Every structure is written in C-alpha cells, then in structure tokens.
C-alpha cells in the first residue's frame, strides 16, 4: 500500500480543528517556506514538482503562477475554487469538512508565491458545513498568526474571505466565478486576457482548486522530487478519486494516478454491483464515457486525454449492466441544459434541443431521424460553444452515441426503454 | 419598506470584505433571505438602497442564482438530488413516494405552506446516493423507509411548532 497524503487526517474525529492539524505536522510548511524560499524560488519548486491543477483542466500550477506580472499596478488576488458542482464529485467537500486547514495552509503558500494580500474562497452555497468549517479554520489560523497581518512575524500579510455561491454550476468556470464575486451574473468571459493578467477587479488573479491547494504544504515539507516520484511522470502526486454509481464500495479514495479504471473499480470499489460493468465515466459527467472493453485505460491526465476523454474532476461513475445508457446521458444533458448560462446560442439552444430529443428517445418515442439529428447537432455545439460547459456536454453525448449506439436503436425499435 | 437596523448593520459589515458594493449584493441577499424567508420585490429594492446600487443589479442576481427565492417556499424545503449517481440509486422512486405522501408534484408547495419538494442537481453526496437536503441539512443513503421516517419527524415537528 502507498501512503495517504491528502486524506491522512480524515479518520481523526477532530481532524477539522487547528489543534489536530498542527499535531499532524500542519503549518510547518508555512514556517519553512517563510524561512527558506523567496516567492520566485517557491514558484520554481512547484514547477519542479510538476503539480497539475486538480480542478479539471490539469494546468501546471507553477506555470500559472508565473504568468502573474511582478510589481503590477494593482495587487494580485488569489481565489480558491470550491464551487464543486460536477456531478459525481465530492472530494473538495471532504477536504473542507474534514481537513480545512490543509487547504488554508496551501492558500497562504500560494498567496505568498504570487504576492497576493487578499484571497477569496468561492464555496458553493449548498455546502453549509464546509462554509462553517472553513470560516472556523480561518478564525483559528488568524488567532495563531498564520493569517492576517505579518504572518508569523514576517512582512507577509494576507486576508482571506469566503464568498458563498448560490446554486449555479457555471460559477465553477473560472471567469464566471470572478464575475460572481464581482456581483454579476455568472457568465464566462472571453480569454485572453487570462485572469493571471487581468482577473478579479481587473487585477492579476490566480484561481486554483481546493485539492490543488491541499497538495502544496506537502510539496514544501517533503520536496519537489518526492512529489514527482509519486505516480506517472506527466501526472505526479497524490490524487483523490470520487467513486460512485453501481459499485459495491463507493467512496472517496486516494491513489497515485496511473492506476487503470479496471484496477481502481475492482481493488478499491469491490467491483460493479451486478458483477458486470457496462460503462464508466472517468472524470465527472463532462468526461466522455468508456465501454467495458476500454477499462484498461489509466486514470491520469495524459492517458485519458489520449483515449478521448479526460480526468476532469476525477469523479468516477460506474454503470453496471442493469443501467440504461440512454437514460443516463439524457439526465446528464438535462443537467447541462439546466445549467447553461445562456450567453451563447449553440449551448443555450443546442442543449435544449439535444435534451428534448434524448428524452424522446429514452421514452421510446424517438426515431432514426432523431439519432441523425444528434449526430449533426453535437459536433455543432462542441465546436461553437463559448466555454467548456457546452463543449463537455456535447462531448459526453457523442461518447454515448459512439459506444452504445445499439442501445439507442433498441429504444427506437422497441418503442420503449428496454431497461424499465 | 426599510430593512431592520440590525440587518443593515450585517450587510454593511459583509460589504467591508470587498472593494466595492456590488460584490456585497450576493451576501446581502442571503442575509435578507434568512430574515424574510423569501425575497419579494420590496426586499430587493431595500437591499439596493442599503448598498446604494442600482436596483437592476440586485434583481439580476436574485433571478439568476437558484438559491435565492423570489417566491415563498415551504418551511421545510426538500431538495432531492436526481443527478446520475442518485438516479442510479433509484432516486426517482423516492420522488414518487414523496409526491404521493405530500400530495404535491415536484416543484410545488403543500397547501399549509410546510413542505416544498424540489429536485436538484448534484449535491456532492454521490458515494452516499441517493441523497437529499431539507433546508440546509443533508440526508444520505436514502431508501423509502428512511425517507418515511424523515417526513414523519418533520410532520410531528411542524405541528408542535404550531402549538408553541
Ligand atoms: C463549466 C465548468 C465548471 C467547472 N467547475 C469547476 C469546479 O467546480 N471546481 C474547480 O476547481 N474547477 C472547475 N472548473 C475548472 C476551472 O475553470 C479552473 O480551471 C480551475 O478551477 C483551475 O484550478 P486548478 O488549476 O487548480 O485546477 C470548471 C470549468 C468549467 C468550464
Ligand atoms: S457554452 Fe453554455 S455555459 Fe458556456 S458561455 Fe455558452 S451558454 Fe454559457
């Protein structure tokens, strides 16, 4: 077995308190960093570690930080993306509920690297306990001078505030998230300019995911090389995987990337409920699904991208042979249609159309022509959407059509859902 | 209408977290909603006055974000997740059961104003599916027996609330 890093404190009943966190070695990294590293050296360390963002896109964290201009006119901001809303994902919730200080320490480290003096944590509105725990963690950290003015006696100061979301999935998209903090409707903005150059209140802004922050104290404590040695070369470091669906032992697991989907589902999840896997969604519902025959694909950024999907939020959803793929993809499309922010036509209108066609097919009232419509509609949405919501939504439908076309045809020919 | 002095104080305080008043609209709406249960037009106007921002800035947020209620909701707002992992866990059956038990359709509120039943998107309980929230409380690993118990308890609770 390998050592748990991110989940190491989770079994401690008081793991969310500062006391427990410090007892487990917490906030040592912060002190070490202030003594040992300049911001530039810190960025170099994180680049060396090859930490890649855990929020969905896998962008190299050190590189992102290095885009922030030095001595910019407006001081930079740091934002924590805790809007976790990708169906099948619950890892950030666990970190915030059970070990919020790991994330907070990571944020302080990141703020030091980019020279931010103010940070916001954007937490989805439904996560009441997370908000409570993070609020408390911030208070505790402030009382011990890990936060606030002159952190641990240094000349580095940082204030952190929570901004509570209010039930819009699109706020997870980074530019929409910034719009939401600025008090606007959450609609994505054109990039460039990238947030690192012009973000929150027109200042340079770095946005990272909760789990990305949670990795940082460990990189400082144990070194970039240690981090790099875990998992495959292109996707190093400890990683959380959320396992759900028709699987015997659903749950939150930590594993090095590079494990195959099959190994993960069998070894950690105890296999599919019915004993027979039909399909697996590897990274939240935006990630194209795989049929059973492709389960030897590895769960890491590169392998999944090469296989035509993505690691995304690492929300692994298992469908066993009792599941109806048409029903699942219909529900996924209805989700995206509901969450479309309405800014661009391909997504706003296209997904609505898509969802209606799929619902018709699922109910056994679809036609072969409907299927052909989907074949042309999906690539249109895919290629013309303004942000990755429309792209991911149509990509997911395409994967279902590609791997499970006979199931769609069965619905048409039998005039009903063969699984219900 | 005017907001109470206490609420105005809370809104002013949260506004200090941001460099401009517009950013404080979302937290202000939460504060107002906690006080008034839902956000009717007059409340939205009063929030705009308190923050000294155009009314449209407040209206557009109250209508864009689903967690702000511009219509009354029941005392107990049941929010059942029906996204993929909960769907695979047969959340639809629970939805039907609750509709029959409460004698409303999803999206409606009982006549006595006690229960609103909504279906919602993923609430991050996928490993403990199916799951739902009642107001801010999570209920996970649901089955019909458990849902029955929850509803029973809430019904008792709500009738005793009425007596006091
Ligand atoms: C529609 C959409 C939803 C997203 N939701 C989230 C989310 O809930 N949490 C998150 O961290 N990133 C989310 N992302 C990715 C963010 O835009 C961004 O890439 C990420 O927060 C960057 O952090 P990282 O580099 O640490 O991964 C989403 C992206 C899109 C397009
Ligand atoms: S793709 Fe969808 S969510 Fe993204 S900007 Fe267009 S309408 Fe909004």
The helicity of chain A comes to 40-55%
End-to-end distance of chain B: 29 Å
Question: Count the helices of chain B. How many?
Answer: 7
CATH fold call of the largest domain in chain B: Glutaredoxin
Describe the structure in your own words:
- The complex is a heterodimer of chains A (420) and B (164).
- Chain A is an alpha/beta fold.
- Chain A is 45% helix and 12% strand.
- Chain A contains 16 helices and nine strands.
- Chain A has helices at residues 18-23, 28-36, 39-49, 61-66, 91-98, 100-114, 128-143, 174-181, 210-222, 224-228, 261-268, 301-306, 325-339, 345-362, 368-384, 388-414, and strands at residues 77-82, 118-123, 159-164, 205-209, 238-245, 251-256, 277-281, 290-291, 315-320.
- Chain A has a five-stranded mixed β-sheet with strand order 6-5-9-7-8, sandwiched between helices. A four-stranded parallel β-sheet of chain A has the order 3-2-1-4, with helices on both faces.
- In chain A, strand 2, helix 7 (128-143) and strand 3 form a beta-alpha-beta unit.
- Chain A starts with 17 loop residues before the first helix and ends in a 6-residue tail after the last helix.
- The model of chain A has no long low-confidence stretch (mean pLDDT 97).
- Chain B is built from seven helices and four strands.
- Chain B is of the alpha+beta class.
- Chain B has two domains: 5-64; 76-163, Glutaredoxin (3-Layer(aba) Sandwich).
- The longest helix of chain B has 20 residues, at 144-163.
- The radius of gyration of chain B is 18 Å and the shape is elongated.
- A four-stranded mixed β-sheet of chain B has the order 2-1-3-4, with helices on one face.
- Classes of the chains: A alpha/beta (420), B alpha+beta (164).
- The interface between A and B is large, with 51 and 39 residues.
- Flavin mononucleotide (FMN) binds at residues 53-57, 59, 61, 81, 83-86, 170, 172-174, 207-209, 212, 387-389 of chain A.
- Iron/sulfur cluster (SF4) binds at residues 170, 188, 340-344, 347-348, 385-387, 389-390 of chain A.
